Amino acid sequence: MNRNERPNIPTGYVVCIDNTDYPASLERNKIYRVLEDEDAAADGDIRVIDESGEDYLYSADRFVPIQVPAEVRKSLEIAA
């Protein structure tokens, strides 16, 4: 990757579309908060707060980035 290029880092929130091999850690169709991690993004991964309440790396293709309205964002942040 060129120094001036930034990897595509989804930030904010994503929805899980594939929890294969991780049924205890990820729920399909659930919203997860993404933590910025440039190294992970460079490898095609994202760091999310999963069902354990901790942050872990998963393949980015398991998720779809979404825009969350402010009221929903507030509610998600309170739950975290």
For the structure shown, list the relevant keywords:
about 30% strand, alpha+beta, SH3 type barrels, 2 helices, disordered N terminus, about 80 residues
Topology of this protein?
Layout: E1 12-16, E2 31-35, H1 38-42, E3 45-49, E4 55-59, E5 63-66, H2 70-79
Antiparallel strand pairs: 1-2, 1-5, 2-3, 3-4
Write up this protein.
The chain starts with 11 loop residues before the first strand and ends with a helix. With 80 residues, the chain is of the alpha+beta class. Strands 4-3-2-1-5 form a 5-stranded antiparallel β-sheet. Residues 1-7 have low confidence and may be disordered. It is globular and about 30 Å long. It has one domain: SH3 type barrels, CATH 2.30.30. The chain contains 2 helices and 5 strands. The protein has helices at residues 38-42, 70-79; strands spanning 12-16, 31-35, 45-49, 55-59, 63-66.
Give average pLDDT, whole number.
86
Helix content: 10-25%
| CATH architecture tag | Roll
Q: Count of DSSP helices?
A: 2
Summarize the structure.
By secondary structure, this protein is α+β, with helices and mostly antiparallel strands.
